[in-house]
Amino acid sequence: MEILAVAFSLTLIALTFIFITRRRADDGGAKLPPGTFGWPIIGETIEFLYGTPEKFVGDRMKKYSPEIFKTKILGEKTAVICGPNGHKFLFSNEQKYFTAFRPHPMQHLFRSYQTTAAPPPPADLTKTIRQPGFLKPEALARYLSKMDSIAQQQLQAHWAGKNVARVYPLAKTVTLTLACQFFLGINNPGRIARLVKYFDDVTLGMHSIMVNLPGTVFYRANKAAAEIRKELLSVIQEKKRAMADGGPMQDILAHLIVVTDPSGKSMGEAEIADKIMGLLTAGYSTVATTITFLMKYVGLNSEIYEKVRAEQMGIAASKKPGELLEWEDMAKMKYSWNVICETMRLVPPLQGTFREVLTEFNYAGYTIPKGWKVYWTVSTTNTNPKYFKDPEKFNPSRYDEGEAPPPYTYVPFGGGPRMCPGKEYARLAILAFVHNVVKKYKWEVLDPNEKVEGDMMPEPQKGLPIRLFHH
Question: Using the 8-state DSSP alphabet, how is residue 376 labeled?
C-alpha cells in the first residue's frame, strides 16, 4: 500500500509539473492579463455556467482588474474585456484582431452537416442573410402587419376568456410562430407548438458542458436538434416543391435554397437545415425572454403600464377598424421602446458572445495571444452605478434625451460590424406584442418574487403566472 501511495504521489507531482511547464510554455513569456485558468481541462467552466454572470465577472473584476482578466471556459483560454472601453475596443477592431467564434457545444449543434474528415469552410450566415436585405427596415416594414396579426391571433387563442395565465409559454409560442413565418414562410401553429420544447433544450445546450450521456443538458440538446432537423428537412422539401410550382420566394429559407457560393455551388439540405435552426434559435429565445420580463416589470408598475397603454391607445385611435400596424406607428412608440430597453438592461436576453483572436494584440498593458478567445459581456456595465443611477430600479425614463447612458455602456445587441442583424426584427416583434396586449388586458403578477432559473438564458421558474383583467 505504501509503495502505491508513493507512486501515486510521484505521479501527481509529475502531472502538476507538466501542467505548470506547459502553461508557462503556452504563455511564451508574454505579459498575460491577471486571472486564473482554474482547474486542468475544465478551467472555470462550472462557475461560468452555473453562477450568475454578474457575479462571475464582477468578482474577477474586483480581484484582478476592472478592465481585463483571463480565465478558461468551455475549453478555451479566454480574455474577458470589461467596461465601456473594452466594448469600444472590441467593436472597433472586428476583423483586425477578432473574428466570430462559436463555443464547441454550439458548433456541434449547428454544424452537423460538416464531416470530420473534410469540414467545409463555415459560411458567414450573417453575411448570407444581410445581402438580400431581409432584415433591413424596408423589408421588415412589409412584414409588420403580419407580426401584428400573429400577436392578435395568439392572444385570442391562448388567453381569451381566461382569468389566470402564464406569460412565458405564450411568449415562446408567439415568438416561434413569428420566426417560422418570417424565416420559413410557414404559419402552422400546431406544427410550431410541437417544436417549442426542442428549441428550449437546444438553447440550454448551446452553453453547456459537452458530455453526451443520458440525463445531461448536452445530450437533451443533441436529441432536440435531431428532431428539429428532421422537421426542417421536411419543410425544405415542401418549400422546394412549392417553388418549383411557382410559389412565393419572400422568406429566408427560399433564399438559402437558391443562393450559391462563388463557384456556383448551392447549399445542401443538411446545411440549410442547420443554418435555419440557428436563425430560429436566435430569433426565438431572446425575444421570448424580453417579452416575459417586460410583462413582469410592467405588471408590477401600474404607472408605467398606464403610460404604455396611453401611448398604444393613441396609435390604435388613429386607425380604422381592422387596420394593422404600419411602419410610421413604430416612431410613435418611444416610451414603449424605453420600457423594452430597461427590461433588457435588467434581464439581458443575451449575456455576451465570444470572439477568436486573429493576431496577437495588446490591451490595457497586457498581451492577448493569437488563438485565444475574447468574451465580452453586458454584465460589466448594465447594473454599474457608475453608468446607471439607481441601477436596480426599473426606470424607463432614464433613456430620455439628457439621461441617456454614456456610449458603450448599454449594448444589448453588441456593436460594430457584428452588431446583431436581428435588432430591428426583435424591436418590431416585441412592440407588436406590447401594442396588442395592453389594448386587451391589464394584469397582476401573482408571484413578484418568483425564482428566475438559468443565467445564460433566464426564465421564470413557474412561467410567470398573472391575473388578467379584460378591457
Answer: E
